[in-house]
Design brief:
The complex is a heterodimer of chains A (215) and B (377). Chain A has 215 residues and is α+β, with helices and mostly antiparallel strands. Chain A has 8 helices and 10 strands. Chain A has a 4-stranded mixed β-sheet. A 4-stranded antiparallel β-sheet of chain A has the order 8-9-7-10. A two-stranded antiparallel sheet of chain A has the order 5-6. The relative contact order of chain A is 0.13. In chain B, strands 1-2-7-6-3-4-5 form a 7-stranded parallel β-sheet, sandwiched between helices. In chain B, helix 8 packs parallel to helix 9. Classes of the chains: A alpha+beta (215), B alpha/beta (377). At the A-B interface, helix 7 and helix 8 of A face loops of B.
Chain lengths: 215, 377
């Protein structure tokens, strides 16, 4: 998943001639928190709602006023992303620098903006929770072909996989969490067990008719 | 005497022998009621028209169902939730679904006309169908079409969904509508299909606070379920003051259902049905429209829904299952069926972790009410 697939566009911007009052109005009316500042089309900074509040607060060393220019309160030389960056790299940059957004530049031109909210949307898409689906949790041996065996099994049953997440466990197996587009996964889980998969969820049919079975 | 709606054509809604949403379940139920000495004389309602389906669904979905029904090959069918493991294509599927929608819609019209205050549609309850896609065994949303018919006459509608699964289709179709209250009690979507129905789904815009979800921990039993029901449902109905209650009475929250993990018993269901009727009398002039829904173990759904029938008809509940019925359906009923209409007491051995489940369920209800009370002032 690339930045260009999840970034917001077109971008609402302020210019270097915009006042803090105007910028504040704009952020409020549009429900944004981040406003790129441009000078003749070129990105020169980022102004956040927090920047405005702090710069105009009595706690600021020389409090600004609504008629002052945005350039006095913005962060200059912001970090940026490329449309072709993978989203995980953009996420890491934002996390490591504790920043809430990345303007996206393509050949020096501002083409989009990526915020923490967009990354949450991406997380939902990646985990498949934004589609009607069931959770299937399987432990796989950490060896070639295991995931292929699992997905082939689902493919043969005409079950669509909305997402697959895997992570290693301390006992050197691979925990695999799938969101699948089917309502009938207990039967599926029983079939998987019969094919010698270790299924963690859902529990076996027998434990269900006798729910005192192992959890 | 409440009106019963059913017709033989409901049996055409059939995804094939391997599919759990099997029409045989209805045949077993009807025969059980008959063998218990009640001649079932249901009203046969007309099929819903294409226009009636379009009162809630996109034309593109209906056109796709029709095309697949005619045998056309459409690679994009999966985007409409069709030609999938849950909703495989079968000939006659468009009309089969419209029969079910027509029954529920007919029930709504009887209530609107004032000729009836209590209707049981023996079928339907296709709560997963969305505006633009079929889902989870549901092609068209009969409940939503009925609710829309009430809305068109200016009624306020409370929708109550006791199916094991979240009633996502109905919730989404009326998520911003301030004359529809949707309440769904279900096994938590953290694990189970369709993955939604969280307490934070509260409705949008003018309908904020009118979408109510009570998700339960897996293996929640009747006592915990009824406790949460009492905490949430009466208050919601009281503040909303509906004209009618539409109930999706899925039976798959029963402990022996193969698709889920809740632990309700036939006794829980009987208590629940009685409470729903009391609440309808209190808050909706007794107007109720019941449909069936999920429920995938024939011996369970026959018993649970027979109890629904006897409760709505205000008939004394028979104790034993008739021999004749047990013999005729042996092949479908399996060895678990027992001899009585009700489950044994206790129905299953104690499930470990009840204390933890109870605590978590109570937390969830407290958090839900905390959010809702803001909108209910």
């Amino acid at each position: 998943m690339l930045v260009k697939e999840i970034m917001r566009k077109p971008v609402t911007v302020a210019s270097v001639g915009t006042t803090l009052g105007e910028a504040d109005q704009l952020l409020h009316s549009r429900g944004f928190r981040h406003l790129p500042v441009v000078d003749q089309g070129k990105l020169v900074g980022i102004l956040t709602d927090r920047d405005i509040r702090f710069a105009t607060s009595s706690l600021f060393h020389t409090p600004l006023h609504e008629g002052d220019l945005v350039t006095l309160a913005m962060s200059a030389h912001p970090l940026t992303a490329d449309p072709l960056d993978p989203v995980e790299d953009a996420a890491r940059i934002m996390r490591e620098n504790k920043i809430g957004c990345l303007p996206v530049l393509d050949g020096g031109e501002l083409v989009g903006i990526l915020t923490g909210m967009d990354l949450l949307d991406a997380l939902m898409t990646l985990t498949g929770v934004n589609q009607p689906s069931s959770r299937l949790e399987v432990t796989l041996r950490d060896q070639p072909g295991e995931l292929a065996r699992l997905t082939a099994f689902l493919g043969a049953r005409h079950i669509n996989i909305h997402s697959i997440l895997t992570y290693p466990t301390p006992d050197s197996t691979v925990r695999t969490v799938l969101r699948v587009g089917s309502n009938q996964i207990r039967h599926l889980a029983d079939d998987l067990r019969a094919a010698e998969f270790t299924v963690l969820w859902p529990l076996p049919m027998s434990s269900h008719l006798n729910p005192a079975g192992p959890r | 005497m409440p009106t019963l709606i059913h017709r033989a054509e409901y049996g055409q809604y059939d995804f094939g022998p391997e599919h759990p949403f099997a029409p045989g379940r209805l045949a077993v139920l009807l025969d059980l009621i008959r063998c218990l000495g009640h001649s079932v004389a249901p009203v046969a309602a007309p099929a819903a028209t294409r226009e009636e389906i379009l009162s809630v669904h996109d034309e593109a979905l209906v056109a796709m169902v029709e095309a697949l029904d005619h045998g056309d090959t459409r690679p994009e069918a999966e985007r409409y939730g069709l030609d999938t493991a849950d909703n495989p294509v079968f000939p006659g599927m468009d009309l089969a679904a419209r029969w079910l929608v027509g029954g529920t819609l007919h029930g709504a019209r009887l209530l609107l006309a004032g000729t009836e205050t209590r209707v049981l549609q023996l079928g339907g309850g296709l709560h997963h169908a969305q505006k633009d896609r079929a889902a989870g065994f549901c092609l068209y949303n009969d409940l939503a079409v009925a609710i829309q018919a009430f809305l068109d006459q200016g009624w306020r509608v409370a929708y109550l969904d006791i199916d094991l699964h979240h009633g996502d289709g109905v919730q989404n179709l009326f998520y911003g509508h301030d004359r529809v209250l949707t309440i769904s009690l279900h096994e938590t979507g953290h694990y189970l299909y369709p993955g939604t129905g969280h307490i934070q789904e509260l409705g949008a815009g003018p309908a904020r606070g009118l979408s109510v979800n009570v998700p339960f921990e897996p293996f929640t039993e009747g006592e915990g379920y009824l406790e949460a029901f009492e905490e949430v449902v009466p208050r919601a109905l009281e503040q909303f003051a509906p004209h009618v209650l539409v109930i999706q009475a899925g039976a798959d929250a029963h402990f022996a259902d193969p698709l889920g993990d809740l632990g309700l018993t036939t006794q829980t269901f009987q208590t629940l049905y009685r409470r729903i009727l009391e609440l309808a009398a209190e808050h909706a002039k007794g107007r109720t429209l019941f449909t069936l829904g999920g429920g995938y173990e024939p011996q369970v759904v026959a018993r649970v829904w027979a109890i629904l029938y006897f409760t709505l008809m205000e008939l004394p509940l028979p104790t034993d299952l008739p021999e004749e019925w047990l013999g005729r359906w042996q092949h479908l009923l399996g060895p678990e069926v027992g001899r009585t209409l009700h489950d044994q007491v206790p129905a299953f051995p104690e499930i470990p972790g009840r204390g933890e489940r109870t605590r978590r369920n109570r937390d969830v209800v407290a958090r839900l009410l905390d959010s809702l009370l803001r909108y209910w002032l």
